[in-house]
Predict the structure.
Amino acid sequence: MREYPTRLEAERLLQESEQMNPGPWGDHCRVVAKCAEAIAKACGDLDSEKAYVLGLMHDIGRRFGYGHLKHVYDGWRFMLELGYPAAAKICLTHSCCIPTLEVYIGRADIAPEQYQELAKALSATEYDEYDQLIQLCDAIGMADGATDILTRMNDVKSRYGQYPQAKWDKNLELKDWFSEKAGRPIEEITAGIRP
Ligand SMILES: [Fe+2]
Protein backbone atom coordinates (compact mmCIF):
# COMPACT_ATOMS: atom_id res chain seq x y z
CA MET A 1 0.00 0.00 0.00
CA ARG A 2 1.18 3.52 -0.79
CA GLU A 3 2.06 5.65 2.24
CA TYR A 4 1.65 8.91 0.34
CA PRO A 5 0.06 10.03 -2.96
CA THR A 6 1.83 9.85 -6.29
CA ARG A 7 3.22 13.10 -7.69
CA LEU A 8 0.28 13.41 -10.10
CA GLU A 9 -2.33 12.63 -7.47
CA ALA A 10 -0.75 15.14 -5.06
CA GLU A 11 -0.75 17.85 -7.74
CA ARG A 12 -4.38 17.09 -8.55
CA LEU A 13 -5.34 17.18 -4.84
CA LEU A 14 -3.61 20.53 -4.38
CA GLN A 15 -5.35 22.06 -7.40
CA GLU A 16 -8.73 20.82 -6.24
CA SER A 17 -8.04 22.17 -2.74
CA GLU A 18 -7.05 25.59 -4.06
CA GLN A 19 -10.40 25.79 -5.83
CA MET A 20 -12.12 25.00 -2.52
CA ASN A 21 -10.12 27.66 -0.66
CA PRO A 22 -8.27 30.01 -3.04
CA GLY A 23 -5.18 31.80 -1.74
CA PRO A 24 -1.40 32.03 -1.87
CA TRP A 25 -1.07 28.89 0.27
CA GLY A 26 -1.07 26.66 -2.83
CA ASP A 27 2.01 28.34 -4.24
CA HIS A 28 3.65 28.22 -0.81
CA CYS A 29 3.14 24.41 -0.94
CA ARG A 30 4.70 24.25 -4.43
CA VAL A 31 7.76 26.17 -3.24
CA VAL A 32 8.10 23.94 -0.16
CA ALA A 33 7.78 20.84 -2.38
CA LYS A 34 10.45 22.02 -4.83
CA CYS A 35 12.84 23.02 -2.03
CA ALA A 36 12.35 19.62 -0.33
CA GLU A 37 12.97 17.82 -3.63
CA ALA A 38 16.15 19.81 -4.33
CA ILE A 39 17.58 19.37 -0.83
CA ALA A 40 16.71 15.64 -0.83
CA LYS A 41 18.54 15.22 -4.16
CA ALA A 42 21.57 17.08 -2.82
CA CYS A 43 21.63 14.86 0.29
CA GLY A 44 21.77 11.73 -1.85
CA ASP A 45 20.23 9.28 0.62
CA LEU A 46 16.69 10.70 0.67
CA ASP A 47 13.85 9.90 -1.75
CA SER A 48 13.39 13.19 -3.62
CA GLU A 49 10.01 12.18 -5.07
CA LYS A 50 8.71 11.43 -1.57
CA ALA A 51 10.13 14.74 -0.31
CA TYR A 52 8.34 16.62 -3.13
CA VAL A 53 4.97 14.96 -2.51
CA LEU A 54 5.15 15.42 1.27
CA GLY A 55 6.05 19.08 0.77
CA LEU A 56 3.12 19.55 -1.58
CA MET A 57 0.70 17.98 0.93
CA HIS A 58 1.93 19.57 4.18
CA ASP A 59 -0.73 22.33 4.25
CA ILE A 60 -3.50 20.37 2.50
CA GLY A 61 -5.76 20.97 5.51
CA ARG A 62 -6.22 24.49 4.17
CA ARG A 63 -8.66 23.07 1.61
CA PHE A 64 -11.22 23.13 4.42
CA GLY A 65 -10.86 26.86 4.99
CA TYR A 66 -8.88 29.37 6.94
CA GLY A 67 -7.48 28.23 10.25
CA HIS A 68 -4.48 28.00 12.50
CA LEU A 69 -4.14 24.67 14.32
CA LYS A 70 -7.31 23.71 12.43
CA HIS A 71 -5.34 23.27 9.18
CA VAL A 72 -2.97 20.85 10.95
CA TYR A 73 -5.87 18.80 12.31
CA ASP A 74 -7.86 18.89 9.05
CA GLY A 75 -4.87 17.93 6.91
CA TRP A 76 -3.89 15.09 9.22
CA ARG A 77 -7.43 13.66 9.24
CA PHE A 78 -7.87 14.13 5.47
CA MET A 79 -4.67 12.28 4.58
CA LEU A 80 -5.51 9.46 7.03
CA GLU A 81 -8.97 9.15 5.46
CA LEU A 82 -7.42 8.88 1.99
CA GLY A 83 -5.08 6.17 3.31
CA TYR A 84 -1.81 8.14 3.18
CA PRO A 85 -0.25 7.82 6.67
CA ALA A 86 3.15 9.27 5.67
CA ALA A 87 1.49 12.43 4.32
CA ALA A 88 -0.78 12.59 7.39
CA LYS A 89 2.33 12.47 9.58
CA ILE A 90 3.77 15.50 7.77
CA CYS A 91 0.52 17.44 8.20
CA LEU A 92 0.80 16.66 11.92
CA THR A 93 4.49 17.46 12.42
CA HIS A 94 5.23 20.31 9.99
CA SER A 95 4.36 23.16 12.38
CA CYS A 96 6.08 21.61 15.40
CA CYS A 97 9.84 21.35 14.94
CA ILE A 98 9.81 21.01 18.71
CA PRO A 99 7.46 18.02 19.21
CA THR A 100 4.78 19.70 21.31
CA LEU A 101 1.68 21.74 20.50
CA GLU A 102 2.77 24.24 23.16
CA VAL A 103 5.12 25.96 20.70
CA TYR A 104 2.53 26.13 17.93
CA ILE A 105 2.45 29.67 16.56
CA GLY A 106 -1.15 30.69 16.15
CA ARG A 107 -4.48 29.91 17.74
CA ALA A 108 -5.71 26.52 18.95
CA ASP A 109 -8.88 26.93 16.89
CA ILE A 110 -10.16 23.36 17.25
CA ALA A 111 -12.42 21.65 19.80
CA PRO A 112 -10.76 20.56 23.08
CA GLU A 113 -11.23 16.86 22.16
CA GLN A 114 -9.56 17.47 18.80
CA TYR A 115 -6.68 19.24 20.55
CA GLN A 116 -6.25 16.23 22.85
CA GLU A 117 -6.39 13.86 19.88
CA LEU A 118 -3.71 15.87 18.07
CA ALA A 119 -1.49 16.20 21.16
CA LYS A 120 -1.70 12.44 21.75
CA ALA A 121 -0.84 11.65 18.12
CA LEU A 122 2.08 14.07 18.18
CA SER A 123 3.55 12.63 21.38
CA ALA A 124 3.32 9.12 19.88
CA THR A 125 5.17 10.23 16.73
CA GLU A 126 8.85 9.79 16.14
CA TYR A 127 10.31 12.37 13.80
CA ASP A 128 12.35 11.25 10.84
CA GLU A 129 14.37 13.17 8.26
CA TYR A 130 11.30 13.86 6.11
CA ASP A 131 9.53 15.56 9.02
CA GLN A 132 12.63 17.67 9.62
CA LEU A 133 13.10 18.42 5.92
CA ILE A 134 9.53 19.71 5.51
CA GLN A 135 9.81 21.76 8.74
CA LEU A 136 12.91 23.37 7.30
CA CYS A 137 11.36 23.96 3.86
CA ASP A 138 8.21 25.41 5.44
CA ALA A 139 10.55 27.86 7.17
CA ILE A 140 12.13 29.01 3.87
CA GLY A 141 9.19 28.78 1.47
CA MET A 142 7.23 31.93 0.75
CA ALA A 143 4.37 31.88 -1.79
CA ASP A 144 6.52 33.62 -4.40
CA GLY A 145 9.68 31.59 -3.90
CA ALA A 146 12.38 30.37 -1.57
CA THR A 147 13.90 32.91 0.76
CA ASP A 148 16.48 32.87 3.49
CA ILE A 149 15.28 31.47 6.77
CA LEU A 150 15.68 34.69 8.78
CA THR A 151 13.51 36.68 6.36
CA ARG A 152 10.81 34.04 6.54
CA MET A 153 10.90 33.70 10.34
CA ASN A 154 10.74 37.48 10.71
CA ASP A 155 7.75 37.51 8.33
CA VAL A 156 5.94 34.95 10.53
CA LYS A 157 6.96 36.88 13.65
CA SER A 158 5.48 40.11 12.28
CA ARG A 159 2.22 38.40 11.24
CA TYR A 160 1.69 36.51 14.51
CA GLY A 161 3.33 39.01 16.85
CA GLN A 162 5.73 36.41 18.30
CA TYR A 163 8.08 33.54 17.48
CA PRO A 164 9.14 31.11 20.21
CA GLN A 165 12.90 31.24 20.71
CA ALA A 166 13.20 27.43 20.97
CA LYS A 167 11.55 27.09 17.57
CA TRP A 168 13.69 29.85 16.05
CA ASP A 169 16.85 28.11 17.26
CA LYS A 170 15.64 24.69 16.11
CA ASN A 171 15.00 25.99 12.57
CA LEU A 172 18.53 27.38 12.38
CA GLU A 173 19.82 24.04 13.65
CA LEU A 174 17.88 22.21 10.89
CA LYS A 175 19.30 24.59 8.29
CA ASP A 176 22.86 23.88 9.41
CA TRP A 177 22.24 20.16 9.67
CA PHE A 178 20.85 19.80 6.12
CA SER A 179 23.49 22.15 4.70
CA GLU A 180 26.19 19.96 6.18
CA LYS A 181 24.52 16.78 4.97
CA ALA A 182 24.10 18.18 1.45
CA GLY A 183 27.67 19.49 1.43
CA ARG A 184 26.64 23.03 0.57
CA PRO A 185 24.40 25.74 2.04
CA ILE A 186 20.68 25.13 1.57
CA GLU A 187 20.35 28.78 0.49
CA GLU A 188 22.49 27.86 -2.52
CA ILE A 189 20.48 24.70 -3.26
CA THR A 190 17.13 26.50 -3.12
CA ALA A 191 18.16 29.79 -4.73
CA GLY A 192 15.80 30.79 -7.52
CA ILE A 193 13.09 28.24 -6.68
CA ARG A 194 9.69 29.62 -7.67
CA PRO A 195 6.23 28.02 -7.53
FE1 LIG B 1 1.01 24.66 7.73
Observations:
- The longest helix spans residues 25-43.
- The chain has one domain: 7-190.
